[in-house]
Design brief:
The complex is a heterodimer of chains A (about 270) and B (about 200). By secondary structure, chain A is of the alpha+beta class. Chain A is built from eleven helices and 14 strands. The chains are: A alpha+beta (about 270), B alpha+beta (about 200).
Chain lengths: ~270, ~200
């Protein structure tokens, strides 16, 4: 690991000041992506700004037809939150599918979303539910937030404070894990809220998480796995590596989307 | 634990330099040392019930603080990439991979490593006893992490654990010897034993 200066601000304002003073500073949330990246010397921040000491960043609140989750909320706390389990069980379940129990004790929703790893789970939930990412400066729609592999619409001194998820009528997330790393080789999130239908895919896209308009159109006619029978996505631009070819991933997108819809309507395949 | 009590954290860098030279550090080393000290930062936490204050390089991981500064070598480094679980300790009661936490993140935290699970001169913790009784280890390298993961599992899931739950919960702990079967048996037995009294306190 390259050396850095460690900071532990107590307020958001202090954290923003530190970010603006140190161009190469990074925010440290749960650290379960950043620290391994630094250990491999793939990142060289001059300063680490640990935001775990800032109060009020880990609340979970129900606001009308949305649930808001604070950026510093650990995966385990989303997974076990009675509010989330009641209002949006799909989010609670997804949080419990991230990493392993020890990782879930540290990793945070804000960290996951800000990092936008192309195989991460939370970006699929944000895009698949039409979430709004709330920062110290503004509200950003998930459709505008994820701008490519490991990149987001966040400005250098912008900090995610919470994420607002509209509550879906029906939703499910299906994840096909890489057998070794347990990351999503492909993950598909589907949701139905009124007439709005969303299908979001993680793990497969060369530019990170993406929506599948053709699937969404098909599901508008009837929200059933049958509507997606035989459908797939083009393999062009999908990830291809030793774990699976682009064609294989394209095939999985169709399979997992059908399974997710089946689960969402209460008729799970497996 | 007893041998650790009352001992101040060592600055092993000093002792290493002195041991290598057989004399006081040279001028060059002295300058280097001052430069390093400028980058040091202090952290205060509780380890196995004992207050600890240490001056550390900001890069120091919790597992390094435990093993190198405090000489608590029961916590092992396996993969060093937060996958294998050999380095699991409890932070404020929750299982965490100590290879992926900076010591400085733990200001005010309460850390429990395998050395603190049972008194040095007393009986084993029921989970340790269950691993011994059920042959839940062979080389023993993953065992401290397995046992602390199991204690955390009991805290969250209760004293009656079925095999499926245990196997799912062990997702982040890798054993290369046993094939897991006896570990699963040991955890089920240890959880029941904790429910029967002796270990209840540790799980809470």
């Amino acid at each position: 690991m390259y050396n850095f200066t460690y900071h532990r601000p107590e307020t958001l304002r202090q954290a923003v000041n530190l970010l603006s003073k140190n161009e190469d500073a990074k925010l440290l949330a749960g650290g379960h992506t950043l620290l391994p990246t630094m250990k491999l010397r793939l990142a060289k921040p001059s300063d680490l700004i640990d935001i775990s000491g800032i109060e009020g960043l880990a609340a979970i609140t129900l606001k009308g037809r949305s649930v808001e989750i604070g950026a510093m909320t650990r995966h385990v706390d989303v997974h076990t939150s009675p509010v989330v389990q009641q209002a949006a069980p799909v989010i609670a379940k997804l949080a419990g599918m991230i990493g392993d129990p020890a990782v879930r004790h540290m990793g945070t929703i804000g960290g996951s979303i800000a990092n936008n790893d192309p195989t991460a789970d939370y970006p699929a939930a944000c895009l698949g539910l039409g979430a709004t990412i709330i920062t110290n400066k503004r509200r950003i729609k998930a459709d505008d937030f994820f701008t490519g592999m490991f990149s987001t619409a966040l400005e250098p001194t912008e900090i995610i404070t919470r994420v607002s998820f509209p509550l879906p009528k029906k939703a499910a997330y299906q994840k096909f894990r890489n057998q070794a790393s347990r990351y999503a080789l492909v993950g598909v999130f589907v949701s139905k809220r009124g007439s709005e239908i969303r299908v979001a895919v993680t793990g497969a896209g060369g530019n990170g998480v993406f929506r599948v308009p053709s699937f969404e159109e098909a599901l508008k006619k009837r929200f059933s796995p049958k509507s997606l029978e035989g459908m797939s996505v083009p393999a062009d631009g999908l990830n291809s590596d030793i774990h699976g070819s682009a064609e294989y991933r394209a095939h999985l997108v169709g399979v997992l989307a059908r399974r997710a819809v089946a689960e969402a309507i209460g008729k799970p395949v497996n | 634990l007893a041998s650790f009590q009352g001992r101040k954290p060592e600055n092993h860098r000093d002792s290493a330099v002195e041991a290598a030279n057989g004399r006081k550090p040279s001028c060059k080393q002295h300058v280097l040392k001052e430069f390093e000290e400028a980058l040091m930062a202090a952290v205060s936490l509780t380890v196995n019930g004992n207050p600890v204050t240490a001056d550390v390089d900001p890069r120091t991981l919790l597992v390094q603080l435990l093993r190198e500064n405090l000489r608590l070598t029961g916590t092992h480094v396996g993969c060093d990439t937060s996958q294998c679980g050999a380095c699991v300790v409890l932070i404020n009661g929750k299982a965490v991979k100590s290879c992926t936490v900076l010591a400085l993140q733990l200001e005010g935290a309460d850390v429990l490593s395998i050395e603190g699970l049972a008194p040095a001169d007393g009986p084993l913790h029921p989970m340790q006893e269950a691993f011994r009784e059920n042959h839940g280890l062979q080389c023993g390298y993953c065992t401290p992490g397995m046992i602390l993961t199991a204690v955390d599992m009991v805290r969250r899931k209760g004293y009656e654990l079925d095999d499926r739950t245990i196997r799912e919960e062990l997702e982040g702990n890798i054993c290369r010897c046993t094939g897991y079967h006896n570990i699963v048996k040991a955890i089920a037995a240890g959880a029941r034993a904790m429910g029967n009294g002796a270990g209840k306190k540790a799980a809470e």
